[in-house]
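User: Hello! My lab partner asked me to get a predicted holo structure for this protein. The small molecule is 2-acetamido-2-deoxy-beta-D-glucopyranose, SMILES included with the sequence. Please write out the C-alpha cells.
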Amino acid sequence: MGFSSLCLTFVSMYILSIFVLFHLVVANSLQSYTTACHDDEISALLQFKQSFVINTSASGYKGAYPKTASWNSAWNQTSNCCSWDGVECDENTGHVIGLNLSSSYLYGFINPNNSLFRLVHLQSLNLADNDFNYSQVPTSIRNFPKLRYLNLSCSVFSGVVPFEISQLSELSSLDLSENPDLTGYFPKFNASSSPLMSLKLSFTSFLINLSSLIEDFDSLKELHVSECNISESPLPFSLGNLRHLTYLDLSSNNFNGQIPSFLKNLTQLTYLSLFVLIRLSKRMRRPRY
Ligand SMILES: *[C@@H]1O[C@H](CO)[C@@H](O)[C@H](O)[C@H]1NC(C)=O
Ligand SMILES: *[C@@H]1O[C@H](CO)[C@@H](O)[C@H](O)[C@H]1NC(C)=O
Ligand SMILES: *[C@@H]1O[C@H](CO)[C@@H](O)[C@H](O)[C@H]1NC(C)=O
Ligand SMILES: *[C@@H]1O[C@H](CO)[C@@H](O)[C@H](O)[C@H]1NC(C)=O
Ligand SMILES: *[C@@H]1O[C@H](CO)[C@@H](O)[C@H](O)[C@H]1NC(C)=O
Ligand SMILES: *[C@@H]1O[C@H](CO)[C@@H](O)[C@H](O)[C@H]1NC(C)=O
Ligand SMILES: *[C@@H]1O[C@H](CO)[C@@H](O)[C@H](O)[C@H]1NC(C)=O
Ligand SMILES: *[C@@H]1O[C@H](CO)[C@@H](O)[C@H](O)[C@H]1NC(C)=O
Ligand SMILES: *[C@@H]1O[C@H](CO)[C@@H](O)[C@H](O)[C@H]1NC(C)=O
Ligand SMILES: *[C@@H]1O[C@H](CO)[C@@H](O)[C@H](O)[C@H]1NC(C)=O
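Assistant: Hello! Below are the C-alpha cells for the protein in complex with 2-acetamido-2-deoxy-beta-D-glucopyranose.
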C-alpha cells in the first residue's frame, strides 16, 4: 500500500467519522420524527375510531372519557399516532404495539374485519369497560401473534370465545371477566408452552372444565373463576399442582364438600376465596366500576 492510498484511507476514515458523528447528532435531534407511526397504522386506527359511536352509557368507570375523540388525521406533527391518547409505539420501529382504550365510551359491534386487526404488532390490548353490543370475540384475534396482555373485561361481549385465543403463544395476561353473556366451553390452552400467568374469567357464563383447564399449567399465578359455570364437584386435586398460584378465586360456583387438603400444597397463595357452601341463587348484576 503506497503512501497516498494510506493517506486516502485516513482521509476517508476521517470523513466517515465526521459523517457518523453528524448522523448521530441529527438522528438524536430528530428522534421524535424517527418514531413517527406508519401510514397504514394511522388509517387502521382512524377506521377503528369511525366504527364506533361515543355513548356515555358504554362505560361505567367515573374517570371514563372518549380517548379516541382527540385522534385526528391532520398531516402534520400531531398526526403522529404514537402520541395519540391510548396509543403506544415501538421506539425503534414506530409500529403500534399498545392500545389502551379502557373506559372510552366506545359503543358498537366489533366485526372480524375491523381495521383493528391490521395492527399486527400489538403486544398489549385493553378494551375493557366499553360496550361492544354483544359482539363475539372475533377470530381475527389470531392476527396478534405477539399479544402479551389482553383485557376485554366488562365490555358486553357474548357467545363462545374462539379457540384462536388459546393459540396466542405469548399471552401472559387474559381478562375476559364481567361479560355475563360469554358462554360455551372456555378453550384449552397448551399448558406446556403457554406463558399465561393471569387468567380472569369471573362473572362469565363459561362452562369450565377445571381439571382440563389447569392440567400441568405450571405458569399460572392468578386464577379468577368466581361465578362461572364450573361443573366439577368436588374440586379437582390437580389444583395442588399449581405451585406458583398466589391468587385463587373460586367463589360462587357449584362446589360442595370439605376444604380440600391439596390447598396446603399452594404455599405461595396470598389470596383465596372459596365460599364452597354459598351459591347465589340469582346471578349478580353486571358490576360497574
Ligand atoms: C347507548 O348505549 C346504550 C346501551 O349501553 C343503548 O341502550 C343506547 O341506545 C345507546 N344510545 C345511542 C345513542 O346509541
Ligand atoms: C395540526 O393539525 C391540527 C388539526 O387540524 C391543528 O389543530 C394543529 O394546529 C396543527 N398543528 C401544526 C403544528 O400545524
Ligand atoms: C389504561 O388506561 C387507564 C386510564 O384510562 C389506566 O388507568 C390503566 O392503568 C391503563 N392500563 C394499562 C394496562 O395500560
Ligand atoms: C346494537 O345492537 C342492536 C341489537 O342487535 C342493534 O339494533 C343496534 O343497531 C346496535 N347498535 C350499534 C351502535 O351497533
Ligand atoms: C365487515 O363485516 C360485516 C359483518 O360481519 C359486514 O357487514 C361488513 O360489510 C364488512 N365490511 C367490510 C369492509 O368488509
Ligand atoms: C382490565 O381492565 C379493568 C378495567 O379497566 C381493570 O379493572 C382490570 O384490573 C384489568 N385487568 C387486568 C388483568 O389488568
Ligand atoms: C404444546 O407445546 C409443546 C411445546 O411447545 C409442543 O411440543 C406440543 O406439540 C404442543 N401441543 C399442542 C397440542 O399444540
Ligand atoms: C351451566 O351449564 C349448564 C349446562 O351444563 C346449563 O344448563 C346452565 O344453564 C349453565 N348455567 C349458567 C348460569 O350459565
Ligand atoms: C374434564 O376434562 C377431563 C380431562 O380432560 C375429562 O377426563 C373429564 O371427563 C372432563 N369433565 C367434564 C365434566 O367434561
Ligand atoms: C403436591 O405437589 C406435589 C409436587 O409438587 C405433587 O406430587 C402432589 O401430587 C401434590 N399434592 C396434591 C394433593 O396435589
